[in-house]
Amino acid sequence: MKTLNEIRSTFLNYFEKQGHTVVPSSPLVPRNDPTLMFANSGMVQFKNCFTGVEKRDYVRATTAQKCVRAGGKHNDLDNVGYTARHHTFFEMLGNFSFGDYFKSEAIPFAWELVTKHFDISPQRLYTTVYHTDDEAFELWKKIGVPESRIIRIATSDNFWQMGPTGPCGPCTEIFFDHGEKFWGGPPGSPEEDGDRFIEIWNVVFMQNEQFEDGSMRALDMQSIDTGMGIERVAALLQGTNDNYATDLMRSLIEASANVTSSDPDGPGKTHHRVIADHLRSTSFLIADGVMPSNDGRGYVLRRILRRAARHAHLLGVQDPLMHRLVPELVRQMGEAYPELREAQPLIEETLKLEETRFRQTLDRGLKLLDEELTGLPEGAELPGASAFKLYDTYGFPLDLTQDALREQGRTVDTDGFDAAMAEQKAKARAAWSGSGEAADSRVWFDIADKHGATDFLGYDTETAEGQI
Ligand code: ATP
Ligand code: MG
Ligand code: MG
Ligand code: MG
Q1: Is any atom of ligand 1 closer than 6 Å to the C-beta of 93?
Q2: What ipTM describes this predicted complex?
Q3: φ, ψ dihedrals at 42, nearest 5°
Q4: Largest Cα span, the chain
Q5: Closest by alpha carbon to 365, among 399, 385, 403, 392?
Q6: How far apart are CA 129 and CA 141, in angstroms?
Q7: What is the pLDDT of residues 22-49, one digit of tens each?
Q8: Where, by residue number, does the polypeptide cross the bilayer (predicted)?
């Protein structure tokens, strides 16, 4: 059985032998890039190499990159706990060419690594190409993939973009079929989001740059950017379709079960999965200098942590939980990511403080939520005003309320929530002009938002979506 740490070395060693420089992961907070909240893929640190603005002393690179997808264009927060393949924090393995090799080498590299070094049977693999990309189609055919397993996709799934601006291009993806016992269909089918066919690797042909006004230019050089989710490969190499059953995630789930004296696979199963996932994203974010706050990156951290705290509460534990799991995380990942070990005391303290504070209002908030729900017809939306009250009085981020309701098949009236928020802001603004002082810190955020003083990312994922 290959462990996650062994998979990382196999990948990096393979590409090092092919002339790639092994480059360390960049921090989760991108340097000098207000267009992006967190590193969401391996290419982020190389963005300027693709556009030609920056030159390095290598033209081939390979990395294991820390990624967080909890806001913006790539947001998987709502998938955690519900799919077998999504995390908010994960590691992306990648190989990069800056104007060096292109499609005809990138495709054979990927195939050789997957079928020879990871020893994955070609009979279990499917590939996709952008619908107009005949060249990629032919390359897969030449390598021996049957035509019936090379699927042309016309959607944005096969045209990769980091965010609304930046380098981008058509891509080709490799999927693994976990077999009939799982529900799901091949890429491009209506059931593709099931847990049977899982995307493991995305190979992007970087050839365009997207601008804010919607226009796109062809880049001067043709480059390669790839991303393989290490947890997904670990899952299939360890004989499971479930990322959360892999060695590393399992150890965190078991730590959560031990500390709460509960069964990792019992009725609290989903809570343990969410906790294990959120432990990684919150700890790595803190290690990279993000602190909980009411705006921007710090608010995303706070939201993730509050979600985790609610799941911990549902397991019936009275005391804060998250900080007690940090030692296991450091045991698992401290060697590959020494910053985690260095920041351990800060991580533990921050998690403990945040969870302790939130628990003071969590109970009352959940009671209020119950009260608001009694009397509502089954399946009816929670009124926006109620969700706003939970946000305003009890510190419930909107997505936490949505997460809580999803278990009951309910949603929130988000228009109503936005309206209540707007009304609150208007009131605060009026109070401010009267006194000459900020009556509410939200006024400041509102102004910062409008004038772009910070990369304010909104109170909910919708706002964040438009801004990153
Ligand atoms: P999916 O369609 O499954 O959501 P994606 O197309 O959004 O994945 P990419 O942006 O192509 O993913 O990222 C490259 C690779 O990173 C994916 O092929 C996958 O192996 C991995 N990956 C992407 N998102 C996640 C996630 N949330 N958790 C774990 N691995 C991920
Ligand atoms: Mg995705
Ligand atoms: Mg995809
Ligand atoms: Mg993809």
Answers
A1: no
A2: 0.99
A3: -65, -25
A4: 74
A5: 392
A6: 12
A7: 999 999 999 878 778 999 999 999 999 9
A8: none
Tell me, in angstroms, the distance from the centre of ligand 3 to residue 193's CA: 9
Query: How many whole angstroms separate alpha carbon 415 and alpha carbon 447?
Result: 21
pTM reported for the whole predicted model: 0.89
Query: How many A from CA of 41 to the centre of ligand 1?
Result: 9
CB-neighbour burial class of residue 246 (10 A; exposed 0-12, middle 13-18, buried 19+): buried
Question: Near ion ligand 4, which residues have CB within 5 Å?
Answer: 202
**What CA–CA distance (Å, rounded) separates 410 from 93?**
37
Which ligand has an atom closest to residue 78 CA?
1
Q: Helices 4-17 and 230-237: crossing angle, nearest 10°?
A: 110
Rounded to an integer, what distance in angstroms lies between the CA atom of residue 169 and that of residue 133? 11
Angle at 287 between CA 284 and CA 289, to 5 degrees: 115
What is the C-alpha to C-alpha distance for residues 96 and 99, in angstroms, rounded to an integer? 9
Testing ligand 1's pocket by substitution, the residue of 199, 231, 246 carrying the most ligand atoms inside 8 A of its CB is 199
Which ligand gives the minimal distance to the CA of 246?
A: 1
The predicted-structure confidence for 403-427, as pLDDT tens digits, reads as follows 999 988 999 999 999 999 999 989 8
- For every residue of 78-146, DSSP letters joined together read GGTTT-SS--SEEEEEEEEESSS--HHHHHHHHHHIIIIIS---GGGEEEEEETT-HHHHHHHHHHT--
Is 398 near ligand 1, meaning CB less than 6 Å away?
no
